[in-house]
Write a structure and sequence with these properties.
Blueprint: E1 5-8, H1 18-33, E2 37-42, H2 52-65, E3 74-75, H3 80-92, E4 96-99, H4 103-112, H5 137-145, E5 151-154, H6 156-163, E6 167-170, E7 174-177, E8 187-189, H7 197-207, E9 212-216, H8 222-233, E10 239-243, H9 263-268, H10 273-282
Parallel strand pairs: 1-2, 2-3, 9-10
Antiparallel strand pairs: 4-5, 5-8, 6-7
This protein binds glutamic acid (GLU).
The site of glutamic acid (GLU) has 7 residues, from loops.
């Protein structure tokens, strides 16, 4: 059996807050309890929002919390060739297609069809109605030659025909049947971002030998899509443990803009890592010394 390998995979788009600390500690503990490995991965594919100073602060915060991890860490922006190769493999099997639609066009198309926009999950973008899937090859070639910007979408119907039914294992929910169909043809790459979150995470977890993905419940739904990508690309399937989200006293999730609960701010106020951990255990984050 492979040793347990977990990871914490933040995006350096802001300061880490208590929610991140809980996620990182959960992954770290799961690895330590099993004498396994804990990895840190920097998810910096969105070059417009990621900044090196946030990355440096992430390492500082995690060290302050008492965590350790092997270096060098994997930085997604340094592996764009790996994501491109995965896209090539999907393209070779006609599983992705270029989509030229803007958000406004997608909305208009849904309205024209007289249907209410179908959302795969609450707050998500409407499910893509498949407009560009129906373009002919010459139409696609002409638009690309003209320089029209496009995204690459997964042809989910064709993908599911190839994979057949899929399941995964979640620590709290047990065996979960993958239900990717309701997400429609998700975007796997854009012009300004040559891979999507789903593709990069799935491939990296495989390449880094991650056996247990611990992450917040807010990413539970993402696993449906990621499971399909694993099957299409012949990747190992980790186990999953989606954990509760840390909230403030009003039950709201912390956001990167909440200055007061960043780990840096807590540190400045003299809060210790032991106090942070005790607050998580007692479910009393709001009572941390302020
Ligand atoms: N980078 C993602 C985030 O910051 C987490 C990725 C994952 O755990 O799958 O939310």
């Amino acid at each position: 059996m492979r040793p347990i390998t977990t990871r914490f995979a933040p995006s350096p788009t802001g300061a880490l807050h208590l929610g991140h600390a809980f996620a990182a500690l959960t992954a770290w503990r799961a690895a330590k309890e099993a004498s396994g490995r804990f990895l840190v991965r920097i998810e910096d594919i969105d070059s417009t929002r990621c900044r090196p100073e946030f990355e440096a602060a992430i390492f500082e915060d995690l060290t302050w919390l008492g965590l350790d991890w092997p270096i060098p860490v994997r930085r997604q922006s340094e592996h764009l060739d790996a994501y491109a190769r995965a896209l090539d493999s999907l393209r070779g099997r006609d599983l992705i297609y270029p989509c030229f639609c803007t958000r406004a066009e997608i909305k208009a198309e849904i309205a024209r069809a007289g249907a209410a926009p179908h959302l795969a999950t609450e707050g998500a973008d409407p499910v893509y109605p498949g407009t560009c899937r129906r373009l002919s090859e010459p139409e696609r070639a002409a638009r690309i030659a003209r320089g029209d910007p496009f995204a690459l979408r997964l042809n989910l119907t064709a993908a599911l025909e190839e994979t057949g039914p899929l399941i995964w294992h979640d620590a709290t929910r047990g065996t979960v049947v993958a239900e990717a169909r309701r997400f429609g043809d998700v975007v796997l790459a854009r012009k300004e971002m040559p891979t999507s979150y789903h593709l990069a995470v799935t491939l990296d977890d495989h390449l880094q030998g991650v056996t247990l993905v611990t992450r917040g419940e807010d990413l539970f739904e993402a696993t449906h899509i990621q499971r399909v990508l694993q099957a299409l690309l012949g990747l190992d399937v980790p186990n999953y443990a989606h954990h509760r989200l840390i909230t403030d006293e009003d039950g709201r999730r912390f956001a990167k803009r909440d200055r007061a609960v960043t780990l840096a701010a807590l540190r400045e106020r003299g809060v210790t890592p032991a106090e942070v951990m005790a607050a998580f255990k007692a479910g009393a984050v709001a009572r941390l010394p302020g």
